Amino acid sequence: MDEKLKKRGRRILFSLAVFFIMLLLDKSGALPAVFENRLLSFLCFLIPYLFCGFSVLRDAVSGIRNRRPFDECFLMTLATIGAFLSGENAEAVAVMLFYQVGEWFQSYALGRTRRSISALMEIAPESANVERPDGSVETVDPEEVSIGDILLIRPGEKVPVDGLVISGESRINTAALTGESVPRSVRSGDPIISGCINGEGSLRIEAVKVFEDSTVSRILSLVEEASEKKSRTENFITRFARVYTPIVVCLALMLAVLPPLFLLLAVRLGLTEPTVFALHPPLSFLYRACTFLVVSCPCALVISVPLAFFGGIGAASSSGVLVKGSNYLELLAKLKVVVSDKTGTLTEGNFEVSELLPSPGTEERELLFQAALAEGLSTHPIAKSIREEYRRLFGGQDPSEGGISETENLSGLGIRSRVNGRVILLGNEKLMESCGISYQRAEDRAATISYVALDGRCLGAILIRDRLKKGAKEAVAALKKEGVERFVLLTGDKESVGEAVAGELGADKVYAELLPEGKVEKLELLLSEEREKGRKGVLAFIGDGINDAPVLSRADVGIAMGAMGSDAAIEAADVVIMDDDIGRLPEVIRIARRVIRIAVQNIAFALIVKICILLLSALGFANMWAAVFSDVGVAVICILNSMRLLGRRERRKD
Question: Is 151 left (phi over 0), alpha (psi -120 to 50) or beta?
Fold first, then answer.
């Protein structure tokens, strides 16, 4: 709790104490000379009123001056002034005082929801230690770091920009970024993202991105933008308050003026006796109007509904998922179809050689050596996996270094390389068949199979697999448990690989051998199928690559992997999973649905109570104390209901 909130709390407590002392003196008749005198009583009760309500009066005047008068401050000011005019001094102070109590609860609740987001805002590093060529270390602003700079990260310091560890070993704390409480080990060759906190060891890293393109900068931008995108429920409440408030002010004015005028007209026309004013004095209608105004204040709705969504975004961020706006949180609650990319999203994206199948008369070393030679100029993950496997098995220098005079990519087939005057072919079955090379077919539905041929003779096949991420299968099952009806896989891999991965995951359908534009076409097809069947569920797409950006933009909800995902994917997405763990998604769906339930509960409870007491106050059966409950009491109950999200989040952290 910050000092400003504590100061407001002390002010309210002091006002409460003074108010209850005066109320006790008034009701007990201890000072009749003071409290039976209307002017002196008014002045006494004006002390706690101004002490606790001056800020409300100031905001009401400011709203009128800025031509935005119809807010809760205006309603409270109008109602309390009316109560003073009707002689109900205690009720006037009670309304203002308990309104401030409700506002304090709101500020306290908002402060708690901001904790996780404040933690995110604090991940921004304040400085960077740049190692100069002469060995000296200069401390600069992170925005001054250039790509290629060598940075020194001392124990306990924040990583200023995304980089690659070039020396040192340590454990880094990524809790503020991913929600993961267990520190992660890094050593030479490992990537490291900005915003992490270094552990006990010193690290030297090479900057691979400037500050504005680094993870920490992207996160801060996402957090700042999230509050600007409101859900349909929040927008409804905002529009409702704008229309509702002027209407109730007019109704209250009519309630204060029209009944006395009708009674006066009835007396003048001889329809009733003048004694009717003894039973229904004009000031009683003013009191009813003031009560009506207090009841009609939309605080409970205006405060509690956005608070529920804000709390949901905070709960999601503490789970390592950034939701870019409450509108996307609302869509996640209605999620029925999840479409996902395969490589890097559900699989690790780190290809490795799973099996070598040399032809008769060919050794494994020769098969792998010729494949590594052919892939010497390629940066494709499969090419890297072949070269790494050769070094792992046989050691020594990378065979791909030197010797290549020509390489040709054969679209949809593979590559043709000329090395030291000899021709090496590396590709699929179609490549072997198109070149008239006989080969022995290899079978593995889940592997990518590359055949190797040297000067027209097949040397054998290399099987390369991409493993499923840990927990991916369980995450798909959890999504279906949360109400997701269909899980669809999109991949550029061959059909047999896609079907094998889909079967292992438990996916309902797979579309394979897709180019980036093909993924958009399939997504459009799935969207049209859902609309044709009259389903109103939401479709989400999960991806991580730059080629996924168009699909992420087209889906109802785009979900990107934040740690390894491309900048384009993260920019196009509506939700970002910071540690690439798809298992976070079911938890966020649960949070989203809990937010919607709480928001609906708050709306229903507030409207029912207010409508009932509005009718009673208009008929003269509800006094100002009932009005205070229907305003402040209902607001506090709704706020406490919204704060259940925070309690659950903190228990999960514990």
Answer: beta
Same domain, 47 and 193: no
Q: Do 369 and 389 meet the contact criterion of CB atoms below 8 Å apart? A: no
Residue 377: CB atoms within 10 Å: 12
Query: Which residues are registered as beta bridge partners of 416?
Result: 408, 425
**Contact assessment for residue 417 and residue 426, using Cβ atoms and an 8 Å cutoff:** yes
Q: Which two tokens stand for residue 146?
A: 């250039």
Q: Residue 255 falls within a domain, yes or no? A: yes
- Of 497, 529, 494, 496, whose CA–CA distance to 514 is shortest? 494
Average pLDDT estimate for 550-559: 84
Respond yes or no: is residue 341 known to be catalytic.
yes
| pLDDT tens figures, 492-529 | 777 777 888 888 888 899 888 777 678 888 888 888 88
Sheet order of strands, 197-198 included: 184-186, 170-173, 197-198
Quick one: which H or E segment has residue 622?
none
Distances (CA, A) of 548 to 253, 540, 566, 568: 58, 13, 9, 8
Burial class of 103 by CB neighbour count within 10 A (0 to 12, 13 to 18, 19+) = buried
Q: Domain for residue 357, yes or no?
A: yes
Pair 113, 237 in one domain: yes
Q: Which of 341, 556, 579, 580 is the catalytic position?
A: 341
Tell me, what's the pLDDT at 461? 93
Which alpha helices (DSSP H) does 269-353 contain, by range? 276-279, 282-296, 299-318, 326-332
* Amino acid occupying residue 291: T
The pair phi, psi for residue 143, each rounded to 5°, is -70, -10
Q: Taking 60 as the threshold, does the pLDDT of residue 228 lie above it?
A: no
d(CA 99, CA 121): 31
The label of the residue with tokens 């009841």 reads 295
Determine if residue 506 is left, alpha or beta; phi over 0 gives left, psi from -120 to 50 gives alpha, anything else beta.
left
Distance separating the N- and C-terminal Cα atoms of the chain = 20
Q: Which residues lie closer than 8 Å to 180 by C-beta, 6 or more apart?
A: 174, 320, 579
Same domain, 191 and 252: no
Tens-digit pLDDT profile for residues 23-47: 888 877 777 777 778 888 888 888 8
Q: Answer yes or no: are the C-beta atoms of 103 and 325 closer than 8 Å.
A: no
Return the pLDDT at 70: 65
- Rounded Cα gap, residues 478 and 483, in angstroms: 9
Structural domain that includes position 184: 128-157+161-213
Residues 139 and 113 in one domain: no
Strand runs labelled E in 455-574: 457-465, 486-490, 509-511, 538-543, 557-561
| Residue 642 in tokens | 């919204």
Secondary structure percentages of the chain, helix, strand, coil, to 5? 55, 15, 30
For residue 425, give the DSSP letter.
Answer: E
The whole-angstrom separation of Cα 364 and Cα 377 is 22
Which H helix or E strand runs over 466? none
Q: Please name which of 171, 128, 134, 168 lies closest in space to residue 151, comparing C-alpha atoms.
A: 128
Using CA atoms, how far residue 426 sits from 185, 349, 460, 521, in Å, is: 37, 21, 10, 31
CB 447 within 8 A of CB 454: no
Instruction: Show the tokens assigned to 97.
Output: 């005082």
Of residues 26, 176, 19, the one with CA closest to residue 628: 19
- Which pLDDT band holds residue 150 (cuts at 50, 70, 90)? very high
Task: Domain count for the chain, please give it.
Answer: 3
3 state DSSP class of 177: helix
pTM more than 0.70: no
The pLDDT value recorded for residue 649 is: 47
